[in-house]
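Support request from a user on the community tier.

User writes: "When I paste my structure tokens into the form, the page sometimes reloads and wipes my input. The last time it worked, I copied everything first. Here is what I submitted, just in case something in the input itself triggers the reload:"
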């Protein structure tokens, strides 16, 4: 089977996912994903699409992750894996969509405005 490649994004994180048939190894930036993501919650997020479709040991996944923080990267990876699985078999889409794994989360950090310390915070007002 050929290699399926997709992209997942979340906040500032970009995950380039390369999925091929194999034994179920997930490699992130040339490291095992359990070493790359220190938290068990993030392991759960990454594996959600595979667990939902009961495909844990069927595919090897190689990922290049860039930008963002840990949770953003994990969610970008989840989206990338979901998109790759849909490319392999379009019948997976309804189940993945029902769990919300196909939708790109559009929320990003609001920019800082000039004359303010942050995006929405204002400097203290002084009447005198």
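"...and here is what came back when it finally went through:"
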């Amino acid at each position: 089977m050929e290699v399926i490649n997709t992209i997942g994004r979340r906040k500032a994180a970009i995950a380039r996912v390369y999925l091929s048939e194999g034994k179920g190894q997930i490699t992130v930036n040339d490291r095992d994903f359990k070493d790359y993501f220190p938290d068990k919650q993030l392991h759960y997020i990454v594996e959600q699409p595979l667990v939902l479709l009961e495909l844990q040991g069927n595919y090897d996944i190689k990922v290049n992750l860039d930008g963002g923080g840990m949770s953003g990267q994990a969610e970008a990876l989840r989206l990338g894996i979901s998109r790759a699985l849909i490319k392999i078999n379009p019948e997976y889409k309804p189940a993945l969509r029902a769990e919300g794994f196909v939708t790109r989360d559009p929320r990003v950090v609001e920019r800082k405005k000039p004359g303010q310390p942050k995006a929405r915070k204002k400097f203290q007002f002084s009447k005198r």
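Agent notes: The reload is a front-end session timeout and is unrelated to the input. Strands lie at 4-10, 13-21, 26-28, 31-32, 59-66. The mean pLDDT is 92. Escalated to web team.
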